[in-house]
Structure of KR domain-containing protein:
Amino acid sequence: MVRQGAKHLAFVSRSGADSPAAAQTVQELQAQGAKPLVLRADITKRGDLERALLEIDPSTPVRGVINAASVFRGGLFSKATVDAWREVVDTKVKGSLMLHELLKDKPLDFFVMTSSVASALGSSGQTNYSAANSFLDSLARHRHSQGLPAVSLILPAIFGIGHIAENRELEKAIQIKGMYGIREEEMLQAFEVAMTQQSSLPAGTDHIIVGLQPRRIGPAVRAAGAAMLSKENPRLNWVATVTAGQAVGSGSGGGSGGGGAEEVRTALARADGKEEAASVASHGLDSMIGAEFRNWIFREFQVNVPFQQLLAGSLTIAQLAGMICEQASS
């Protein structure tokens, strides 16, 4: 935002700028010419939020809101306590409602709430988190019905920063399970779209789902009358994954050296979250996952890849793409 010209930024946090990371962020923003204001408040408490908003200089009124607050408390629903449920839900539900109610009469350019794919797909052991994020999707629709800007930005796992970056085993587990994730740069691109003037987005864009393969969710999206931003908006074209039919049958060239191989390499690299020079086995393939991956290749490309080759540490994504194109075109 600062690189795009923003000068006045207000951050609301229960801990303020006490943590070393927060203090460093403030210093970095100041070095770039910005004027960050850190406000200590609990957004689930109306009084706290009202006091925080009053601390903002009237000469620089609030013109946009991003609520990215999250609390994670996993566990089986049957064993969850009321306090654990509320701690997770209130941060998103109460916090977003407070922001909506206190700022609904302000001329905001954007009102972005960070949601999760858990709201669309569910998440084992996180019914509270899934429910809280689902509420954000509905609140965005409610604001639209009142002529107010709002986007619920539905994100997948984000590798390299935040909660996942602090837990490397969690990141590895997510990748091994084949769950799709994005990196910081892609997340920022998604935020850029979500913060776009509402009139510039397709009509009815109250939530944006990032990180789900368009080919898989296309029928559901069309049935809901929604728009595939990954196809219609060039700023989200990184979301799209090349389909097997496009990669193999597009006529751009078969064999390991043709354009088709290049597209397959790109698709596989993005799906794996790896560079194309990385080995397939380095993604954490074991015998069970390897079997599923082999079946997926056969189902999508009608190519039979020997099981031993998939598990061999020498087979790279680029080599696998070439093998698929060569066999599919023969």
Notes: Residues 217 and 223 are 10 Å apart (CA to CA). DSSP finds 15 helices and eight strands in the chain. Residues 230-260 have pLDDT under 50 and may be disordered.
